[in-house]
Structures
1.
Amino acid sequence: MRTLLPFLKPYRISAAVALSLMLVELVVELCFPLLMAKLIDGAILRQDVGAALKWGGVMIGLALFGFAAGLVNSFYAADVAQGFAHDMRRALFGKLQSMAFSDFRAFSPSSLMTRLTGDINQIQNSVFLGLRVFVRAPLLIAGSMIMALTVDARLALYLVVVTPILVVVLGYTIRKGFRLFRLVQERLDKLNGLVRENLIGMRLIRAYVRGDHEKNRFAETNGDYMRRSTAALRLSEMTVPGLLLLMNASVLLILWFGSRSVTAYETEVGDVVAVLNYAIRITGAYAYLSMIITSLTIARAALSRSAEVLAAGSNEFGANGTAADGIPPDRADVLFEGVAFGYPDSEAAVLDGITFSVNDGETAVIMGATGAGKTSLLQLLPRLYEARRGTVRVGGTDIRDIELSVLRRQIGYVAQESTLFAGTIRDNLLWGREDASMEEVVEAAKLAQIHETIMQLPDAYEAVLEQKGANLSGGQRQRLSIARALLRKPKLLLLDDCTSALDARTESLLLAGLKTCGCTTLLVTQKAQAARWADTVLLLADGKLLAQGKHGELLARSETYRFIVESEREEAAHHA
Ligand code: TTP
Ligand code: MG
């Protein structure tokens, strides 16, 4: 509820209108059996046509009034529910953008997908139902009970007796259902995750002829989802027949004792009919209630999942991200001092005792076997993750003291797997810096050695990319990502193995180009060939800095480095 209320607040007037109209509907409904009693006792039994017309007219008028109120109510209820869901989706999406990256990684993408779409829809439906009928059902039950008691207390007693039993049953269903439906939603996350994985990996699945295997995997998850849903639904649907049985029993009791007291001239026929009518309405309300409760329980489980996302801290790294005046240092030398790092979800140290420096405008090449921690090291600079120990300085300032957005605006980061967005090539490049001119775009593309390739495309810079740049080659995607980073005119350029798909000639052209851009560059690469361009080479092994120095120095000093360089040379000779 605490999650829900702030989102409903902007719609409180519409919600209030909807609820008051619902009350109007309720009053109309509660008056009906009374009017019916009047019609029977005062008009029909006395064969008074005038009175019959009068009461009949009142009933028709009231019915139309109630109908109009219901119509306007659903109009407002839909308004509230849609607006509320829209705002909630926006808030969740906003949270995705603002929560710490490590928190973001703690949710699975498919779970977030479900939370932002399916879950919100469930909540939206329940808000609508809530304003339409959910509040009305209990009121209708209570109101009918009171009205029936005033009409004939003795007969209505049979209705009152069963109430505690029904309340207990419904309460149990709600509690148990909540747990069951959370499990259902988790299974749905899993199902979505599997579909997502298959959609992304379809190329590989086809090439490996793993379609049947994937189908089996899907069938298992799908079956699991079905079983969980069935169990959850069965629980809530089982209560309906039970409720109806109890209510029908009390209806029969009313009929039985009612007819006896009518024959004994103790009660009027109209009163018996009225009490019966209330009983039937209560029965209907209970049946409805237990059905809505199913939807409400699902929504409650969905809401608790949304709340989890919303509860994630909004400031990346909390308060210490804004300590500084936010002035960007005008030099971008990088200094690591005794840095240790590990991922939040594990104890293991990924980096340990890392100390090195890169002067302003110089290039450091980071080498090391796969899994050595190269990507992890680069990710510390834009503070995607926090170092566990030690300090990272840029321009002499501890990066924890630089405002996060200021720090990141100075960084051009090219991730190991290039990410492009649906849109034109120009859009994708401008994504790096929106206010760049077309000349700057072309300049960056030239520097990244992709300009000529772009010019060969039918629409050149206006060529449309598919999602994730699927209609480009791996190397083209890499170079576009580099151009996008260069367009930012960053002080600090971080390139994570993004020349891996480039041929040697293009790579050396690119590296020569990068030299001219004047930014401090950290380049992760597997090729010793690239290390010749570097002012410093950092050799990582198992999260530790094995050696550092110039290419020539390392050749003389480090056996591992010599081995890497020599094996690469042999390979080259072999191919030549
Ligand atoms: P990386 O830093 O990704 O290693 P790398 O970049 O040197 O390797 P490659 O050349 O293949 O790109 O990983 C170091 C360790 O950290 C490795 O054991 C995997 C682990 N790791 C995580 O646990 N979570 C993560 O998000 C990443 C990126 C790595
Ligand atoms: Mg890596």
2.
Amino acid sequence: MIWDRQELKSVIREKIGEHKFVVVSNREPYIHIYSAGGIKCITPASGMTTALDPVMTASGGTWVAAGMGEADREVVDAKDRVQVPPDAPAYTLRRVWLSREEANAFYYSYSNEGLWPLCHIVHVRPVFREKDWQVYTAVNRRFADVVLEEVGDDTAFVFIQDYHFALLSAMIKEKRPDIIVAQFWHIPWPNPEAFRVCPNAAEILDGLLGNDILGFHIRYDCLNFLDSVDRFLEVRIDRERLSAFKGGLETLVRPFPISVDFDRIEKIADSAAVSERVRAIRGDFRFKGRFLAVGIDRMDYTKGIVERFAAVDRFLEKYPEYVGKFVFLQLGPLSRIHIQRYKQYNDEIYHAMVDINERWGRSGWEPIVLQKVQLGLEEVVSYFRAADLCVVSSIHDGMNLVAKEFVAARTDDSGVLILSQFTGSSRELEQALLVNPLAADRFADAIKQGLEMTEAEKGERMRKMRETVRENNVYRWAGKIVNEMKKLL
Ligand code: F6P
């Protein structure tokens, strides 16, 4: 059976019925900002919010998130609630306000300078400060209070997102053990050796065992989590059932590989607007008549952007027949720029590009084009359609939805995906050209292989990958989690 928005809606209505459904995340699904004509509502560039919006539309529940938009306060009611989506209200967005100091300590510092590098293991040293941990704990407590207020006296399902809320489920359960709580951890979970450097390791594990269900992208992360629990806590673990028992509560630890809205991307890919954009991209003097490879990522050190530039450099060195005939276009928004390591990484990307272009460039041609921009889905799809190759070279990535978006966009059954073997998506997209992003020589060979692949082989590989993503789409991801939650009623 292929899951779609309609199917998910009916499953949610049937399974959740009269229970309240509350989603919690740091990032909100709709942001209000000031614009020339007044206030404008925009959606953030986040795979997570895109994945959950249909779930919320179907459940008509409440989404609790931090209010981040400059005009967010202007549109909420006295209880900090606003109905969304703005053009067809279907659920409630409840905003939680964090001061600048809180956001710095909770989001930038503890979550993204601490937990993010801790979980990704890409040789960026995590930074843990006691004061950030105190704020992280206090913010989790604030969200717990808001969730409990939203649930009121009703029975409820609460679905928490990500590493910003490691303590939240236990805080909810402390007051309301009857609420069914699930959490999805959108990033990898490290092995116990790596995890043990976290000064709050035991508290974090203890907090996460407040969940009835704890989801990761792949089984490997589930096993790493259980191994960490085993190392730090005195609780019973059942490796057969993939679960841990703390007090009277069993936490089921399960893989739920997240995905994309395949149908929506396919529709956009087949639109006249995209064909128009593709013509414009291919006609751009920098790309015209040349092979075009693209990478689209947030500027984040986990994404292996410097490593892919190094592979382009090696490719031109090994295969000089491509000098002047190949362009690598790197697109994507700046991210978490208040963090020192991200500032540094941006400089590294820029300098790597300048050095390589200086080495190989000649009049009218530069091998690397870098544009730090935030793109809408239609633009992303257009670049995917205009490209001969898409390169995803994360050094470590929980899933990576860019790879799945590329596959969904290639309704022409063409194009080649070069994919890091360290992404969750490489477990599903076996027909991609899998690379170790640190092995520049082999990576360079994969670029050559991709450019020289016959149309027949491209078609065969792409058709198989498209079947996989079509079937394992985002509605299936959400539906499977809802089904698991319902079993616990
Ligand atoms: O990949 C993990 C994740 O938290 C996603 O859920 C999210 O889309 C992405 O990182 C971006 O994170 P941020 O909200 O910090 O920009």
